[in-house]
Each structure stands twice: as C-alpha cells, then as structure tokens.
C-alpha cells in the first residue's frame, strides 16, 4: 500500500448514521480493537479503554444519553472509547490527566475508524452526549472519561463527500 492508497482510504471514509441489519462478526471487532491498541500513546502507557455494547437495552440508554441520537440503536455494535485519567496521571500528573490520555484515546479512535472503513463497515464518531449519564449507564469509575461513542455496522446509506479545508500558518519558517 502506498501513500496514495492511504490517502484514498482516508478521503472516502464517511460518518454513517443509518445501519443495515447485518451483524458484525467477532473477528471484525477483534481487528478493530487491534488497530486501536497500535495507536501512538504518551509514554506508551496506552491510557485508553474500550467498552463494547451489543445489548439493545443498553444501546437505547446510550442513544438517549447521546441527546437522542437514535441511529446508535440500529448499529450492531457500539464502542465507547474512554480516556484512562488515572493511568496517565500517575506518570505525567495534571498534563497526563487532562491531555495525554485524551490524545491516546483519540489516536486509537482514528485507527478504529479507518480500520472499520477498510473492512467495508461503517461508523460515526459521536461526541455529543451527557458524560454523567454515560458513566452511570456503563457503571464506569469516577476517574474514567468517555470520549466518544462509535456505532459500528454495515451502512444503509451513501453520504455525500463534504468539503474540506485547512488553514496553514507559515510564520517563522
């Protein structure tokens, strides 16, 4: 795979909010989680954890806590990506707790999203949710920090390609 193949993969990935009824197989979930664990992390602490949800009742609660984003319910698998503040703060103090564990988690999320897409599956990075409700539903410890909800399944839609832009500041080059 060359750089153009990688860019093509990145450019054609879309956020999907309509899922078909096809199930996601265990080996696919294993590959997604394997990609997550190979993301870079501060001090190689890997200060991120993942919660897998397949239970329909739990998915309904998660969707409700995600400001009624009910498309989450239709996804066969939902992954909640969490920053492990405690693990990162032990070595890096406040900066580890407030930044590095979040960076670790988001790098893992991007690896998962690209892996999901490369397997012909679809997903959506859901960041709008009530953190306290998610923590209560999933019985998470106080120091855990849910970062994103990732519904995973086969797409039942074909989203349009959005426009993209980037600002580059070349001061002091």
Task: Give an account of the 3D structure.
There is one protein chain. The chain has helices spanning 3-12, 26-37, 56-65, 71-74, 85-118, 131-137, and strands spanning 48-53, 77-84, 122-123, 144-153. The chain has six helices and four strands. With 173 residues, it is an alpha+beta fold. The chain has a single domain, classed as NADH Oxidase (3-Layer(aba) Sandwich), CATH 3.40.109. α3 packs antiparallel against α6 (131-137).
Tell me the CATH architecture.
3-Layer(aba) Sandwich
What proportion of the residues form beta strands (DSSP E)?
15-25%
- Count of DSSP strands: 4
- Please write the string of helix (H) and strand (E) elements: HHEHHEHEHE
Span of the ends, CA to CA: 32 Å
CATH topology description? NADH Oxidase
How many structural domains does the protein architecture include?
A: 1
Work out the helicity level. 40-55%
Give the neighbour order of strands across the main sheet. 1-2-4-3
Mean pLDDT: 95
Instruction: State Rg.
Output: 17 Å
Q: Which homologous superfamily in CATH is the superfamily?
A: NADH Oxidase
Q: What structural class should be given to the helix and strand makeup?
A: alpha+beta
What coarse outline follows from CA principal-axis ratios? Answer: globular
Which ranges are low-confidence, i.e. pLDDT below 50, for 5 or more consecutive residues?
none
Largest sheet: 4 strands, antiparallel
Number of helices: 6
């Amino acid at each position: 795979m060359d750089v153009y193949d990688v860019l093509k993969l990145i450019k054609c990935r879309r956020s999907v909010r309509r899922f078909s009824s096809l199930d996601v197989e265990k080996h696919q979930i294993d590959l997604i989680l394997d990609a997550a664990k190979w993301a870079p992390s501060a001090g190689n602490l890997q200060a991120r954890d993942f919660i897998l949800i397949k239970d329909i009742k739990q998915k309904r609660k998660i969707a409700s806590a995600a400001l009624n984003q009910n498309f989450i319910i239709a996804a066969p698998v939902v992954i909640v990506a969490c920053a492990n503040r405690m693990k990162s703060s032990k070595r890096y103090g406040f900066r580890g707790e407030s930044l590095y564990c979040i960076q670790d988690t988001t790098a893992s999320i991007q690896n998962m999203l690209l892996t999901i897409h490369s397997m012909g599956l679809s997903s959506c990075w859901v960041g709008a949710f009530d953190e306290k409700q998610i923590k209560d539903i999933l019985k998470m410890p106080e120091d855990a920090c849910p970062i994103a909800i990732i519904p995973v399944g086969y797409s039942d839609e074909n989203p349009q390609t959005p426009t993209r832009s980037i600002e580059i500041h070349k001061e002091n080059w």
